[in-house]
Predict the structure.
Amino acid sequence: MTSIVLFTDFGPSGPYIGQMESVLRLTAPNVPIINLLSNAPTADPRLSSYLLAALRRSFAVNSIFLAVVDPGVGSERRAVVLRADGQTFVGPDNGLLNTVAVQSEDVQWSEIIWKPEQCSTSFHGRDLFAPITAKLAINAADDLLQPVDKHDLSEWPQDLAEVIYFDYYGNAMTGLRYHEAYSGRILNINGFAIKQADTFSAVEEQQAFWYKNSSGLVEIAVNKGRAEQQLALKLGAQISFSVV
């Protein structure tokens, strides 16, 4: 069954998500809508792209992602649709969808050639991307898209050894997919050397550790504490590994 999945940097409050949902329901009233994330890294498509690529793995084939992290809204950047390994992604052509593309095997890009009669220069999420997403969900968008050859993404890293997201608990998610080669190594970040642990309870309270998170990424946490604060971390902080 098709579902529409929202991924934005709009924040947890304000009218924007509700406005997009309203547009979606007008055209595709029977399609479930899941608000996956509303606090993606603000105005940072690059970091957000690695988060989107990791979180998509929990969703079924035929899911349609409405992804909006769009600091260039209103500019000449293209509006695109990416079909990748059975899932569909709608959003700006600013790097937000690139990591999904480079981590996928079957990839097809299209440009949105449809132009709404009313389109604000500051809210393409509501006026452009949401209508297209809804039409895709009911199989009514074929004439609104034009297949394109995407620019060369060979230089776009498949993984990113940086902090890309802080969750509610202050845990620091990185854009690096876990690999067995990292097992037992020391993670270095911001002057701290952090050991691996499998669970929070495996370390003392207030002790930092790193682990493979539920999305398959390397993540940094503090048992009963906040890694973001305790380690003075910021988005984009780089990590590296060294031998114990």
Remarks:
- The first strand starts at residue 4 and ends at 8.
